[in-house]
Amino acid sequence: MNSVVSKQINKYDIAKDTLVLILAGGRGSRLHELTDKRAKPAVYFGGNRRIIDFALSNCINSNLNRIGVVTQYAAHSLLRHLQTGWSFLPQERNEFIDMLPARQQIDDSTWYRGTADAVYQNMAIIRDHYRPKYVLILAGDHIYKMDYGQMLLDHVTSGAKCTVGSIEVPRKEATEFGVMAVNENLKVKAFVEKPKDPPAMIGKPNSSLASMGIYVFDSEYLYEALERTVNNENTSHDFGKDVLPMALEDGVLYAHPFERSCMGRNTEGAIYWRDVGTLDSYWQSNIDLVSEEPQLDIYDQTWPIRGNPTQTYPSKFFYKKHKKSVDNSLIGGGCVITDAGISNSVLFDHIKVNEGSNIEYAVVLPQVTIGKNCVLKNCIIDRHCIIPDGMQIGVDIEEDRKRFRVSSSGRITLVTPAMLKALRGEIVEKEEHLD
User: Which residue numbers delimit the Glucose-1-phosphate adenylyltransferase/Bifunctional protein GlmU-like C-terminal hexapeptide domain (predicted)?
Assistant: First the structure.
């Protein structure tokens, strides 16, 4: 009992000395048109949340209430979301979620040049205003549940100056990650960023140990490492390419296995973490939520994922003519479904689906209208789309390629208002030509 109490006290004391920085400035170019007008962390997810809500909720659930969100690209919707949904922490208790937009502090043309530079350009504020003992750095674009307090505790007890969150991934997928090798004490002995031939784990030839893009630093070591990085003429201004190899060379880099702090497991007990950086992974991660036994349980109130849901009227369902049904789906508020079939799909707020339409394995973002007798399969429909009567999406991929965006795997079709507008223009031109 005493050891448990001691462990809780240690976590609490460490949390008070910790500043969290969430790096949320990236565009997310592999999501293509889905991030044309919004930063990747601001992309809608799970029926009524945004991607960044997972990192923020993990912080609050971990009693880490001193948070800075570093923004840059297309930040308006993200900043508005933070202001309206995440401004509840009491400043008088030195708790906050501060926004740290790019301010061109080096000169008039230098924006954030990489993940490390985003922190470096805020270093004076961090050191002189926040004055943390530890700095926890997170990516704002991953889906997972994690107790950061456990990672911080492991960092302090190991004697590390830098700790990196790690997860076992299939070796063939590890080319997109920083990959490391560790000893029996989890001290990192080798680290390589996005290798073409990822090294395998000892005894697991088909797996690699990958960085999750989550870092804990002793603050003084972080300041020193960033100064050394920025003064290196060959720098990439990146944690994975520059700072972690430096910490490895200094002998102060340790790994934290995600399984030690994971708070979201599937029904088989497997840990859940997803980088939703591609259309395929974004679609799949949403669909992971809809089954009776989901890969990630968003209804679990022991580790809640909060956000800024809009206040809506209840959704309405009318079935008068057709024998349709809604099955295995998440339906947001304020939706009106009339004589339409919906299965294995995620519909956000204020969706209108008209009679005769069928929706399967679709992710439909807010304020979309779907006309009569439409077929939507294996697709992502962006906000404000108006799908005309009779349109088929996800039925003929080659036809979809001519009109919309098809994912690299050829499985998922993305539809945006701009694509539909261009398509309407083509139809009008053809009709005028016929006249």
Answer: 314-414
